[in-house]
Design a protein that fits this description.
CATH topology of the largest domain: Rossmann fold
Oligomer: single chain
Strand content: 15-25%
CATH architecture of the largest domain: 3-Layer(aba) Sandwich
Helix content: 25-40%
Order of helices and strands: HHHEHHEHHEEHEHEHE
Number of helices: 10
Distance between the termini: 56 Å
Strand order of the largest sheet: 1-7-6-2-3
Largest sheet: 5 strands, parallel
CATH class of the largest domain: Alpha Beta
Bound molecules: zinc ion
Shape: globular
Length: 236
């Protein structure tokens, strides 16, 4: 009888432990080996200024960043917007699944810590805001949820009200490369009462052309932020 109980208990435990990415049964809580491999961080082959990806090259500052430095002092990201990371971000975006959100938060937190950005210095954590109309439609702001990954790290203070949208804009994904660059011009405003005189960690999920971060960082600086560090999950 006890063997039968043990058998069912083992099955129940197996059902409880699944890889939050692919759903495969795993021996221990966390990602399966395949997903962990696919979700490994990208440690080289990109411009440290803007994150532009190169094939097989050590971090080198690209020409665009050399000519015209970005409005941020640092950009950290976890990996390329591709494969398992892309699937996970998209699935989370549309389902808001908690388990997947936790995996993504973990990756974001690792990316922040890996870059040595966690000095203990006091910084505000500001997620890229959604326009209220889009927020109502989607129900939650993915960047805000992701930014909770940094909660509890020394010196970091959540400040979701530090930045807001001033107008509704066409989603960047629906636009061509050229239109994306100007679509978000003056679409953000910072609250000087909150950000003036302080360094900010600006959080978003995916960086494509970088224009969202560009306009958001500029608005934060106009509002008096002393410095903006960008932290995103994926670079496409
Ligand atoms: Zn898996
Ligand atoms: Zn660059």
């Amino acid at each position: 009888m006890s063997a039968v109980v043990a058998f069912f208990r083992r099955i129940a435990q197996g059902l409880g432990r699944r890889c939050p990415v692919c759903g495969r049964v795993v021996p221990e809580k966390g990602l399966c080996q395949g997903c962990a491999r696919e979700l490994a961080p990208r440690l080289s082959g990109f411009c440290p200024g803007c994150g532009t990806l190169y094939e097989n090259e050590p971090p080198t500052v690209c020409f665009a960043c050399r000519d015209d430095p970005r409005p941020w002092s640092r950009l950290s990201f976890h990996g390329r917007y591709d494969g398992a990371l892309r699937d996970l971000i998209l699935h989370y975006k549309f389902s808001g699944a908690l388990g997947q959100g936790r995996v993504l938060q973990g990756l974001l937190r690792e990316a922040y810590l890996r870059e040595g950005a966690a000095s203990g210095e006091e910084k505000l954590v500001v997620p890229v805001p959604l326009h209220p109309r889009r927020l109502r439609f989607r129900g939650y702001n993915q960047s805000l949820e992701l930014s909770r990954a940094l909660a509890g790290l020394p010196g970091l203070i959540p400040c979701p009200a530090g930045l807001r949208r001033t107008r509704h804009t066409t989603p960047q994904a629906n636009l061509g490369q050229k239109e994306r660059l100007t679509n978000l011009k003056d679409a953000f405003a910072a609250d000087p009462g909150r950000v003036a005189g302080k360094p900010v960690v600006l959080v978003d999920d995916v960086m494509t052309t970088g224009s969202t971060l560009e306009w958001a960082a500029k608005a934060l600086k106009r509002g008096g932020a002393t410095r903006v560090e960008c932290l995103v999950l994926a670079r496409s």
